[in-house]
């Protein structure tokens, strides 16, 4: 059983995997940031155009690095505490977590900077 299955089991079939997880509750957020793998958080909102633009690069990196990290889309409208804890001031904000600490951050729709963040996973 893989880590991602342990953290968030897939409801349809155990051999399927998710490219990223949509985090809407504090308990799901706690599970995600306590994973034994690096975690890439995308703080996002459905109504934000820059977030819509960055979903494809986020999804692509999640697919390419699915065995190396856990990718989580954090809904800022539902998780105000996480937004305050991680000092999210603009959308989208990407945070790479390693060993339960922040290793790197990218703010805004900066595709090249986000792709470079993938090298640190």
TrEMBL record:
CDD domains: TRX_family. Transmembrane segments: none annotated. Gene3D superfamilies: Glutaredoxin. Residues 1-121 form the Thioredoxin domain. InterPro entries: Thioredoxin-like_sf (IPR036249), Thioredoxin_domain (IPR013766), Thioredoxin_H-type-like (IPR050620). This is Thioredoxin domain-containing protein. It comes from Eragrostis curvula.
């Amino acid at each position: 059983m893989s880590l991602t299955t342990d953290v968030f089991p897939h409801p349809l079939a155990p051999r399927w995997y998710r490219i990223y997880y949509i985090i809407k509750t504090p308990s799901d957020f706690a599970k995600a940031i306590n994973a034994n793998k690096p975690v890439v958080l995308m703080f996002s909102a459905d109504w934000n155009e820059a977030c819509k633009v960055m979903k494809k690069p986020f999804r692509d990196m999640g697919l390419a690095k699915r065995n190396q990290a856990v990718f989580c889309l954090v809904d800022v409208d539902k998780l105000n505490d996480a937004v305050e804890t991680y000092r999210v001031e603009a959308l989208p904000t990407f945070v790479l977590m390693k060993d339960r600490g922040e290793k790197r951050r990218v703010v805004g729709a900066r595709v090249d900077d986000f792709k470079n963040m993938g090298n640190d996973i």
